[in-house]
Amino acid sequence: MTHIFASDFDGTLYKDHIIRDSDLEAIAAFREQGHKFGLVTGRSVDSILAEAEKHNIPYDFVIGINGGAVLTHDHQEIFSKTLSQEISTELAQKIDDFGIEFYGVTDGYRLARVYGNPEARDSFEPNIQTTPVEEILEVGARGFYVNAGSEDHALALSIEINAHFKNRGVQCFPNVSAVDIGVEGVTKATGIQSIIDHYGYDGTVYTIGDSYNDLPMIKAFHGFAMDNGVDAVKKHAQDVVETVGDALKSVTR
Question: Range of 158's domain?
């Protein structure tokens, strides 16, 4: 029986701005038993693959854009979902008008970054080369990440976006001081289900995360919450742990 362990990246596997050797060792041990480990993130595919290479993170699948892009271990894309060019452009204008620190928009792989506050440029440099925003909007976005500057501002923006784009195939939710925007019905949980269906895995699915965009997969499967996570994630998790390695060790004993 093949089990799956799907881990969020930022704030979870990449906690306190480091990747722990003990976590990498636990991932290796889990995979050596024949199970599958994957990264599930709101980042673009190119961004998370760059981090995996930088930190030598082994993986069997990658899910980017909160489920908007699902790849096998050899980078075969088995699921994708994109907002229309019209909706993408309208979203970008709405975000610009609202007033934010910066936002990123991706077609799943490439990333464009737009700064509302020029001072934010020095503090939030992306880890991959960026693309002009017009090129992303022209083909349609798979997701937006908005740094709103504060939790209150993020909540206000998410309410405004959800109201304005109601019944138009857009979903938006606050993520602490940020906002995640994507295709309605596409989540980290649906991304994991695509992996299960593609390979026909029949074991237990374990997930771990720390923030609101992790809630769908925490609720849908056997979820772990990080001790630094938001209360909503902890509430729905089976257990709260300090590291990804702790969770992996608890399911491989």
Answer: 85-183
